[in-house]
Write a structure and sequence with these properties.
This protein is of the alpha/beta class and 370 residues long. Helices cover 39% and strands 15% of the residues. Helix 7 links the parallel strand 3 and strand 4. The longest helix is centred in the C-terminal third of the chain and has 25 residues. The radius of gyration is 21 Å and the shape is globular.
């Protein structure tokens, strides 16, 4: 082959490494000759309860219409979000997962010569969407594994167009207090858009916790993104949404692909918003599972990063890669996070009680060299 096709790509794309998701169960089964039914996956922050019963019912009812394109405007889901949270339809943008919305923001507002500010140890998609459009990524060193908002505000320059803030943060699980965030917003110029990524916010049960929905009306340059992939258990369907000033939503809809959210996802998301008992059960299971893993780490003499997500980053006190490989041989999939600058940590999603125990037992064996 004489043509260098990589050389034809945009410079930022040439330098990208593809996002690496959690290892699929089927891949691990092939790799080690394991029984897929005997493998547990605690790698991708998925809801271990499965989808909400009301969501499954809505999907079943939507199946006969699969020959039709979905509602490109997502009217029913926008109405459901509006009823639940009180926002005007003009403030809502739907995405193929909240990840899609992050990319739309990059496509709409970034270009070569423009900058994006985000924290060290933050979601890997932030640098990916930045680099893909040729913008400059400005990574600010973390403070105690979380966002240093004072330093991030100081990193803003006339070239800055976006700031990504994750709360709770993935993969560390750290969080930002409301007063701290409001002080940060007061320092951000009005022409700089702040994206508050709240993919895990439904798991936060503290009464006075930062909630971006309370602040969108006060800060026109604030965009809040949320997803149905985590607490609502719809990761496979890929549906998320953003709340923003109507002019920002209008810009995003100009670059949004037609029919970017499929019919089954739309129907399931509407039903999930109404299934409040499922959300309560998801929170309960997560809270109890978090305590179970913390106690297990305590008994193993391991440290961890306190988390408000549905995952926890455990510090092994040694290089984590060999332990990760040992867990794979045990049929347990977790997430290595060396790519996030955390070579001694593993990120573990909260599972069902028996899954959490299986992981802790396997971890003990691997650490003891069994």
């Amino acid at each position: 082959m004489s043509c260098d096709f990589l050389g034809l790509a945009l410079p930022g794309v040439q330098e990208l490494s593809p996002y690496v998701p959690g290892k699929p169960v089927e891949e691990l089964a092939r790799e080690f000759g394991l029984d897929p039914t005997d493998i547990i996956k605690l790698a991708s922050n998925e809801n271990p309860l499965g989808p909400a019963p009301m969501a499954l019912k809505a999907i079943q009812e939507a199946l006969p219409e699969l020959t039709r394109y979905p509602d490109g405007n997502g009217f029913a889901l926008k109405q459901a979000v509006s009823r639940r949270f009180g926002f005007d339809l003009s403030m809502i943008t739907l995405g193929n997962g909240s990840n899609d919305l992050l990319e739309l923001l990059a496509r709409a507002f970034l270009a070569p010569g423009r900058e994006v500010v985000f924290s060290q140890h933050a979601f890997a998609v932030y640098p990916i969407v930045t680099q893909a459009v040729g913008a400059t990524a400005v990574q600010v060193p973390a403070r105690e594994w979380g966002h240093d908002l004072e330093a991030m505000a100081a990193a803003i320059t006339p070239a800055t167009r976006l700031v990504f803030v994750a709360n709770p943060n993935n993969p560390t699980g750290t969080w930002i207090e409301r007063a701290e965030f409001e002080a940060f917003m007061a320092q951000v110029p009005e022409q700089v858009l702040v994206v508050l990524d709240e993919a895990y916010t439904e798991y936060v049960t503290v009464d006075d916790a930062l909630n971006g929905f309370d602040l969108v009306g006060r800060y026109p340059n604030l965009i809040v993104t949320r997803t149905f992939s985590k607490a609502y258990g719809l990761a496979a369907l890929r549906v998320g949404y953003a709340i923003s000033h109507p002019q920002i939503a209008d810009v995003l809809n100009r670059v949004r692909q037609p029919f970017n959210v499929n019919s089954l996802a739309l129907a399931a998301a509407v039903a999930s918003l109404e299934d409040t008992s499922y959300l309560a059960e998801s929170r309960r299971a997560n809270r109890e599972g978090m305590l179970q893993l913390e106690q297990g780490f305590r008994e193993l003499g391991l440290a961890w990063i306190a988390s408000r997500g549905n995952f926890i980053a455990v510090d092994l006190g040694r290089e984590a890669a060999p332990v990760y490989q040992g867990l794979l041989r045990e049929g347990v999939i977790v997430r290595p996070v060396a790519g996030y600058g955390m070579p001694n940590h593993l990120r573990v999603s909260i599972g069902l009680p028996q899954e959490n125990k299986r992981f802790l037992d396997a971890l003990a064996r691997v650490l003891n060299g069994e």
